[in-house]
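hey m, so remember when u said the tokens were messed up on ur end? i reran from scratch. heres the input so u can diff it against urs
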Amino acid sequence: MTRTLAAGAAVSIASAPANASNGKPVKILGISCSPREGKTTATAVKAALDAAKKVDRRIEVELIDLGGLEISGWSGGAKPTEGRQISDGFDLILPKLRDSNVGGWIIGSPVYFRSMTALCKVFLERCAVLRKPKLLLADTAVGALAVGAFRNGGQELVIEQIQSVLLCHEMMIVGGEPGAHQGATLWNAYKDDITKDEFGMDTARKLGIRVAEAALRLSLKQA
């Protein structure tokens, strides 16, 4: 039996059990791309990470909250503008993104005008440095979540936008189980207490579990 992770990529569930171990920890990074530090998106990403951590004792998790960081957009295509080196908040988190133990990402964004936030966009742009001299993120499991002001407020559009960018890194896109096949969708209808959205929180947990399972299996294939 196989479960498809992305177009043209599949791993065998039977040959790679989630509790197998090759002695190496597998880290899942949760990246909250809301300019509001510690608010609904960060809470949702943390819920996904908490669920991921319970999958296997080898799973390690870390939340990267971009709220409050100043990150400049990428310029000059595949490299910074000649003669000018960008130095800002992205440099603080870059070593975490390059950690060889990272096997999965969970990236979340609020919905702003039915699109990802500007902060999410510039973060993804700056990840261009992870494409050279080789694709450092290739075969890394990744799931996306979005938080909207309405139940049908553009969450799936934002998830699709994030996934489209990360496919350029040859990352392995995963979703959750029923209710979260594309990713986690949350509704901020309770004055910033996202935990009251029981359906949405369930999708976040399902996403975290699937990212952890996929990251473990991919790590076994790469061992």
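this time it looks ok to me. The chain has five helices and eight strands. if urs says something different then somethings off w ur setup not the seq
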